[in-house]
Amino acid sequence: MKNKLKGIYITCLISLLMISCQSSHGQDVAQAQRDRLFKNYMEVKKDIQDENFDSGKAHAVQLEKEVQNFRLKGLQLDDMMRLKKVSQTMKADAASLKAAQDLTAMKASFSAVTQSLFTIMETMKCTDDALYLQYCPMEKGYWLSYDKAIENPYAASMRKCGELVKGMAKADYPEPVACH
């Protein structure tokens, strides 16, 4: 009887460890996916800033792929429902970005993707880095930046034109975060 209980106890411990490892692995995979999404976003932003349409198209393909694979996890039900609509909008905007035929269309779609991406990242609280939503009133375009200082990607002649709309950083989130 004692050996049977010991066997059950060991089986339970092993099961708990396996569940814990799978859960941790799932979080690592989700975080890696979010990192790839944001990396591709920043590559498209740099291409727009450099006015490199061909490279922007290539990076837009990768960004659209990551947006299509993006999953909303670890959210309250009301946030999940609201972000589901935002995520669908971001998928359509990413498809438009990929299909852009010129730099002007690419900029418009990039701005739309930016707004959805910021809303999702802000709600999911899935970055430890400071991140800022910025806006150029002349180009009517949004972009994300790691820095508060304005570095407008939309027009070389207006690099300092723009305004800080909103910021988010780990310090802004006193509650436990949903992404980690």
Automatic annotation (TrEMBL):
<keyword id="KW-0732">Signal</keyword>
<feature type="signal peptide">
    <location>
        <begin position="1"/>
        <end position="26"/>
    </location>
</feature>
<dbReference type="Pfam" id="PF11827">
    <property type="entry name" value="DUF3347"/>
</dbReference>
<protein>
    <recommendedName>
        <fullName>DUF3347 domain-containing protein</fullName>
    </recommendedName>
</protein>
<feature type="domain" description="DUF3347">
    <location>
        <begin position="38"/>
        <end position="126"/>
    </location>
</feature>
<dbReference type="InterPro" id="IPR021782">
    <property type="entry name" value="DUF3347"/>
</dbReference>
